Amino acid sequence: MNIGKLYQVKKFYWMIYPSKDVAAHAAVTATVAVDSAAAVARLFSARYSERVNCNVSYIFPNNIFVLLEQDGEFIRILSANGEVGWIYLTELYKNDIEEMNQ
Hints:
Blueprint: E1 6-9, E2 13-16, H1 20-29, E3 33-34, H2 38-52, E4 57-59, E5 64-71, E6 74-79, E7 84-88, E8 97-99
Antiparallel strand pairs: 1-5, 1-8, 2-3, 2-4, 5-6, 6-7
């Protein structure tokens, strides 16, 4: 992945965590990608937000984002809705995100 490039999510709902630490905690305790309805993603983000006492949002299929930073399996993004946060992107799910032609 390349910093400053535009990417699109293909199939999954991705949680956007407010910090790399929260994303790392989620990687150990929760699902990182939800292959389901938007209602499940909303519920997960709301419940996890309560659990870690901060805002956890999500992006959904066909949504785009700009890659701001990458640290191993953690990527910091700017979503199409203006949200900045971290996604935990394991090798297993990398194919769900593709670079867009700008």
